[in-house]
Structure prediction request, 153 residues.
Amino acid sequence: MFKIFKKQNKKDNQLPKSTQQILSETFTNLIAAFDKDAKKLSPPDFNLCLIEILEMEVNNGGFNLYFVNSYGGYIQQTIDALDTIGSKVFKEILQKAKKLYPSDSISEDRSERVELIMDSEGLFEKLDREFYAAYSKEDIHQMLLDYYNKHKK
Prediction:
């Protein structure tokens, strides 16, 4: 697709975009392709989507929302994506969430995940707080941007 970090023209009277804004704009451009057929995305695009989706879901409703929504079936691929960009903190938290999940395997069937999560109220509250605090321990946005720019052709 394209490199997502461009130098700002100093003649522009605009503030430079933050790393998070750049990632968010790129994600917005990719999410439709992800939803249509994620397998067709390049590895950098796929990994960016997985990590941005994780953040979006957990920050909007905790791990309950992440597991209940359709993207929860991508948990192992998301763990792998976090590992690929070099994340230790967020990867560890997601691995803990996977272990807490009230079943030995995480079904790709959304209705099965909804049923299990609805019976497990409050299960992920501690991990939700750990996730929110992780931003002060690891700059996941910069890690993702660096990875994406290095590997995207």
Summary: Helices lie at 19-37, 43-68, 75-85, 89-100, 110-118, 125-134, 140-151. The first helix runs from residue 19 to 37. The chain has seven helices and no strands. The CA atoms of residues 78 and 86 lie 12 Å apart.
